[in-house]
Amino acid sequence: MKYKVAILKSIEFIEKNLKNKLSLKSISSYVGYSEYHFSRIFKSEMNISVMDYVQERRLLIASKEIFDGRKIVDVSYDYQYDTHSGFSKAFKKKFGFTPTQHLIYAIKILENIKNENREVLIMKKENNQGIFIEPSVEFASVEELYNQLILNIKYKYNSSDLEEIEKAYLLSCEAHKDQYRKSGEPYVIHPLNIALILSQIDVDKESIIVGLLYDIITKNTPITLEVVESKFSREISTLLNDVTNFKSADLRKVVEEDCDIDGRVFIIQLASRLHNMRTIKHMNPDVYKEKAEETIEIFSPIATKLNLIKLKMELDDLSIKYLID
Fold this sequence. Notes:
With 325 residues, this protein is mainly alpha-helical. Helices cover 65% and strands 0% of the residues.
């Protein structure tokens, strides 16, 4: 990112002043640029205008407070909306449903948790109004996560597709046995969570399979691309190879529209980054700050470019948490 320091400085300033009056003038002055120049820099680097970004962050934080039970009218005034109706209109335009519907959804989620009497949240098929993608659950068992995946996709794919997905799951479990993440969880938890995130985005069967096979031809496993092709298809082995050889810098090619890489590679990598950001607390602080910066600089703008708004908003939220804390 050419203007990395200015962008990160502006994001920190915005985050600390979400409940105060903010303008392009105040933000650009804080980072030492003219309004015109800074607005061009920000839009070019972040794929969103400065004030649209401010509104997005306000609405997202407001949504969390509503979810936690605060009155909608109080939240709307806190985040610089003059009227309740103006806040509701902006909220619905951004998320596709009203703050009241969001509150009702929050109540249903709490009821689900209470009824299940467990920490693992099983999202019901009819509950499709979440602002975030379904959360990862640390220390859930491999079997629980796989069952959740099947619950998410069983209406999308036919029986033969599901059999192929199960085959990928079993191969991944076998390849990563005796391997563990920094959290102490079995390594296969990571590919399973990638597949879970992908299952909540409109992707094809091949993307789900490659998500489950993530890192299967690295991490000191005995599996090769030839083995993958023999068990699945040339398309899947090619996609897996592209995902395995992916470099973060390749994401910039999407913005520059100079890219001949299969778009599914970027979506799978975004899903991987989201799960890693959700579990980044297990890394060294220097590492997670570096990853947070990279996520803001590269991954989040590409999620915007690909119109993966829920994913982009959570990437921003997690990154800012570790940049500012």
